[in-house]
Automatic annotation (TrEMBL), chain A:
One of its GO terms (molecular function) is serine-type D-Ala-D-Ala carboxypeptidase activity. Its main location: membrane. This is Penicillin-binding protein 2. NCBIfam families: pbp2_mrdA. Its EC number is 3.4.16.4. Residues 252-575 form the Penicillin-binding protein transpeptidase domain. It holds the Pfam family Transpeptidase. It is found in: Cell membrane; Membrane. The chain crosses the membrane at residues 7-25. It comes from Shiella aurantiaca. Residues 48-210 form the Penicillin-binding protein dimerisation domain. The lineage of its organism: Bacteria, Pseudomonadati, Bacteroidota, Cytophagia, Cytophagales.
Automatic annotation (TrEMBL), chain B:
This is Cell wall polymerase. The keyword Translocase does not apply. It comes from the Bacteria. Its main location: membrane. It holds the Pfam family FTSW_RODA_SPOVE. The chain crosses the membrane at residues 12-34, 54-70, 77-97, 142-161, 182-200, 206-224, 231-252, 327-346, 358-385, 391-410. Keywords: Cell membrane, Cell shape, Cell wall biogenesis/degradation, Glycosyltransferase, Membrane, Peptidoglycan synthesis, Transferase, Transmembrane, Transmembrane helix. It is found in: Membrane. The lineage of its organism: Bacteria, Pseudomonadati, Bacteroidota, Cytophagia, Cytophagales. It comes from Shiella aurantiaca.
């Protein structure tokens, strides 16, 4: 019996050994989940964020930079017996906040670090830095936020923010991850893929406390972050600042373009906001304030606000009529002044005089010649043919569709189509007299300020334009800017006709509606006023101009909402901008005072 | 008749070789368990566990010499005295001991700590062997069974009072030695049944378990001779079993300490809360499982040395082997232990004195229990019971205790031919 029992004991020992070996074989050799779990444990994937590209003005002055800030991280497992009250008072959060953040961190991982408190500023960090050693399990990592030393051009530059869910779902490249920052509007959005750079990744071995214990496989899988490309904008910092100062307390836009390149020198949307408001941890709070502001500072007026062009449109009408040869530059047209209300007196007009005095009746006549060329005896059909031809010219001026500028969400304004009138009045139920108000830039017509600035550039160039753009250079010349910004767009109107219009626009400033506020001593400015009829209130003041007349350096459009005559607010602002840009300073303090005072009534 | 043979010729060199291999491997593993690439310290560095373990190994050599030099009859003759002294120490430590991690089982003398419960293992083995080898003591008699169990239960009680349940359970293993000597097998079966029922109670909802047991009882009655005696026996057993099942729940919630409850719960479902009480088991399995077939290589383990596995130098030392040496390493280690234990049973069976044989089986049982429970807990087959893996877990008390145990056996075995007269 005893031999038997000894055998049983020996068998038991061997059987246990075998069971263990079989079980070990299954978890060590057959089952891969433990290997994965082990890597998850000990191999930490550290994302190394590249610094976002810096943005400077056309002269290399930095206008968007990166500021250091700190994310407070927590490893829940490490947290022990901390003075919660002290921590929440240091961070200025509530007890509920603390509990909530802690629970979120625990839910994410017990042993891995998660963000406890985002974006501590340098000063906040300095304040709590010493105290932090008392809170086991908490530490900070450095990141950066955007900062704007000059606080200009907020709407054009745009802002960055944490990527939202829908944007994340639309991202087909798979680059973005929750919590990443992405350009949301303006240049930040348009040039996102250049500015963002490329994330680097480091695989590190960490112990249970998340403390680094060396590189994983000697860094074989690590990649370095590639910093974002710096961008040089076309913006002239000084001019932009000056324009923003002039527009203080007003609602409207200024767009200034260098005609020979299409580079936007200034793009001002008023009212504006300090771009520094949309960085750092107050982003959400400030964003809500800005969004609920009744003056909609987040609305990028130069590219999004649409107005009827008003009298500045008369120059286009003249150009089309001249090109169509239904009008000759010196032809004297008698205007009785009975077709439409007019400030210009009845009498004989040629192109030059009509533009200078902004005759409404003259341009009604001119527009009729363009529309009704008697191609068809039926006046309804003839008007259709004429309008289509006219629209074709108009579209070549970059109107009726958004200009392909490098800020997203630009509007195209509106140029009525045949279909539009057919729908509105019925087919063959409309003719020239129905659409007459188009002749003076009113009626259904809508344009954006940037389209009008571009129009000024077209006249300055005598017939062509480069699509306006805000970026001069990406990555120190290594990345070419899009060819669409280096291609001339022709209007199909001969340059001789522009000479006529330029002559007239010079007269506007010399002795016409612009003579009081737009004239400069040594510089010949060509301009045209617009007093835009506004059914909702006081007329809008508009002005386009370029200067100098020979070899123009700047083309500009100014709109000031509810400021009355174009010859007042807009003309004054445009001339100050031209003066500032061409001379570096202004020496007409009375005009400057007039603008800054902001009262443009009689 | 008596030969004065040289002890060197008579000791069992196979056992000593196995011992040597295990101790050296253990030492290397202790170095690997806390190895830090960023501050590499020598394996001999006395600030490291490995350096201290080397001191303990040195101490073991002194102990071995002492054990082998003492006359072999000393252990037989003074068995009860040694037992008595150790029981005294257990009482003493309970009164004046030093508390470590909730267990009041340590003497602190200067910077040196000693755990009397470790010595109690071989002392109890000696006393049990002495008692069972006494003429006229028969294990089929209730009184003798009771005394034998009493010898084991006295230290068990004292050690439980110290708060060290893990160590106390080791003594139960010696029932295996009693079994070899004729202790009725039914007791072992009953013990197993209780253990199985206990686990089932925790695993299966009580209602299902009760229904299952009733059905089982009905089936037993149905397929057996339907005598009144049998039916009464089955129904009686059923009532006892049901009462047991009902009371387990009470015991779990009201008698066990929270850390013990957690260990049992973690055994049953370590994934239920892998970061809470299941942490040890989960991490231990991850470490071992990530080793693969060949392992990550010596000093290349990440889970153990980066502290994901708790107590990686002591109770969870097996994780280092599993992770760094893979299944091959596990095979080697389990192979070595199984060989050692089988060798001990072989030694036991060749003894001419009953005292030595019982003692050998006690030693085998103790090794077996440590092996079973320690490795079992690291791979998630046993609850986490804080007992060391012989020769591998860091610690002087444990190493010395196993060394003394094993070398007393080697000493007794070396003189087995001299006790012919006593048969």
């Amino acid at each position: 019996m005893n031999d038997n029992r000894s055998l049983i004991i020996q068998i038991a020992i061997v059987v246990v050994g075998l069971i263990y070996l079989v079980h070990l074989f299954s978890i060590q050799v057959l089952d891969d989940t433990y290997k994965v779990a082990a890597e998850n444990n000990a191999v930490q994937r550290l994302t190394e964020y590249p610094s976002r590209g810096l943005i400077s003005d056309r002269n290399g002055e930095l206008i968007v930079v990166n500021d250091p800030m700190y994310d407070l991280m927590v490893v829940p497992k490490e947290v022990e017996a901390i003075d919660t009250l002290r921590l929440i008072s240091l961070l200025g959060i509530s007890q509920e906040d603390f509990t909530q953040k802690m629970e979120a961190a625990i839910k994410f991982s017990w042993v891995k670090p998660s963000v406890f408190y985002k974006q501590l500023s340098v000063t906040d960090y300095a304040r709590i830095q010493d105290a932090l050693v008392d809170f086991k399990g908490f530490y900070v990592i450095a990141r950066t936020v955007r900062s704007y030393p000059e606080a200009i051009a907020a709407n054009a530059l745009g802002y960055i923010g944490e990527i939202n869910k829908s944007r994340l779902e639309r991202d087909t490249t798979g680059y973005y991850k929750q919590g990443d920052y992405i350009g949301i509007s303006g240049l930040e959005s348009y040039y996102e893929e250049f500015l963002r750079g490329k994330r680097g990744v480091k695989y590190r071995l960490v112990n249970v406390r998340g403390i680094e214990k060396g590189a994983f496989k000697d860094g074989e899988y690590d990649t370095l972050p590639i910093p974002g490309e710096d961008i040089t904008t076309t913006i002239d910092l000084k001019l932009q600042q000056y324009g923003e100062k002039l527009m203080e307390g007003k609602v409207g836009s200024i767009v200034a373009i260098e005609p020979q390149t299409g580079e936007i020198l200034s793009i001002i949307s008023a009212p504006d906001y300090d771009p520094n408001l949309l960085t750092g941890r107050d982003y959400s709070a400030n964003f809500n304030v800005l969004q609920n502001d009744s003056l909609v500072p987040l609305f990028n007026r130069p590219i999004m606000a649409t107005y009827p062009p008003g009298s500045m449109f008369k120059s286009i009408q003249a150009l089309i009529a001249l090109q169509e040869k239904v009008l000759y530059a010196n032809e004297q047209v008698f205007c009785e002044g009975n077709l439409i209300g007019d400030h210009a007196p009845p009498g004989y007009y040629d192109v030059r005089k009509a533009i200078m005095l902004s005759s409404n009746n003259y341009f009604v006549k001119v527009f009729r010649r363009v529309i009704n060329q008697n191609v068809d005896p039926n006046t309804f059909i003839d008007s259709r043919i004429g309008l289509e031809k006219w629209r074709d010219y108009i579209s070549r001026f970059g109107l009726g569709a958004p200009l392909d500028i490098d800020i997203p969400n630009g509007k195209g304004g509106f140029v009525p189509t045949l279909a539009y009138y057919d729908r509105y009045y019925g087919e063959n139920r409309w003719k020239f007299s129905t659409i007459m108000s188009l002749s003076i830039g009113q009626g259904e017509l809508l344009v954006t300020p940037i389209q009008m600035a571009n129009f000024a550039a077209i006249i300055a160039n005598k017939g062509y334009y480069y699509t306006p753009h805000l970026v001069k250079d990406i990555g120190k010349g290594e990345i070419p800017i899009s060819s669409k910004y280096t291609t001339k767009n022709y209007t199909g109107i001969d340059s001789v006709h522009y000479e006529v219009v330029i002559e007239a626009m010079a007269d506007v400033v010399k002795s016409g509606t612009g003579q009081y506020r737009a004239k400069l001593k040594d510089i010949e400015v060509c301009g045209k006023t617009s007093t835009v009829q506004n059914p909702h209130g006081e007329d809008h003041s508009g002005f386009i101009a370029f200067a100098p007349r020979e070899n123009p350096q700047i083309a500009i459009a100014v709109y000031v909402e509810n400021a009355g005559q174009g010859a007042r607010a807009a003309a004054a602002i445009a001339s100050l901008m031209i003066e500032k840009y061409l001379k570096g300073q202004t020496d007409r303090p009375w005009i400057e005072d007039y603008v800054l005072k902001g009262y443009f009534g009689d | 008749m008596r030969r004065q043979d040289n002890i060197v010729n008579d000791v069992d060199w196979i056992t000593i070789l196995l011992y040597g291999i295990l101790v050296i491997l253990g030492w290397l593993n202790i170095y690997a368990a806390v190895y830090d690439e960023q501050s590499v310290k020598s394996i001999f560095d006395l600030s490291q566990n490995s350096g201290k373990q080397l001191l303990f190994i040195g101490g073991s050599i002194l102990i071995i010499i002492t054990v082998l030099v003492i006359d072999f009859k000393f252990y037989d003759t003074f068995a009860y005295v040694i037992y008595g002294v150790v029981i005294g120490l257990l009482v003493f430590v309970l009164l004046f001991g030093h508390e470590v991690a909730g267990s009041k089982s340590w003497f602190q003398i200067g910077g040196f700590r000693l755990q009397p419960s470790e010595i109690a293992k071989f002392a109890s083995a000696l006393a049990l062997s002495k008692y069972l080898s006494t003429v006229n003591v028969r294990l089929d008699r209730f009184f003798h069974q009771a005394v034998a169990l009493g010898i084991l239960l006295l230290p068990v009680g004292l050690i439980i009072l110290q708060g060290d349940t893990g160590t106390s359970m080791v003594f139960a293993a010696m029932v295996l030695a009693m079994y070899r000597e004729g202790f009725p097998g039914i007791y072992l079966v009953l013990g197993l049944v209780i253990a199985v029922l206990f686990v089932l109670t925790l695993l299966v909802p009580q209602t299902y378990l009760i229904i299952g047991l009733v059905v089982l009882a009905a089936l037993i009655i149905l397929f057996n001779k339907k005598s009144v005696r049998n039916i009464t026996l089955v129904i009686g057993s059923l009532v006892i079993v049901l009462a047991f099942v009902r009371s387990v729940d009470f015991v779990i919630t009201d008698v066990f300490k929270p850390h013990q409850q957690n260990r049992i719960k973690a055994l049953i479902n370590p994934n239920s809360d892998p970061l809470g009480y299941g942490w040890n088991v989960t991490q231990s399995k991850i470490a071992i499982g990530s080793g693969g077939f060949l392992g990550k290589g010596f000093l290349e383990g990440t889970q153990t040395k980066f502290d994901f596995v708790p107590e990686q130098s002591t109770d969870f030392i097996f994780c280092t082997i599993g992770e760094e040496h893979g299944w091959i390493g596990s095979l080697l280690l389990i192979g070595l232990f199984v060989t050692l234990m089988l060798r001990i049973t072989m030694i036991a069976e060749r003894q001419k004195s009953k005292f030595a044989r019982v003692y050998a089986y006690c030693i085998a049982s103790i090794f077996f229990f440590h092996f079973l429970v320690n490795i079992g807990m690291t791979i998630g087959l046993f609850p986490v019971v804080g007992i060391p893996l012989p020769f591998f877990s860091y610690g002087g008390s444990s190493l010395w205790s196993f060394t003394i145990m094993l070398f007393i056996l080697i000493k007794l075995d070396a003189h087995r031919k001299q006790v012919l007269v006593r048969l």
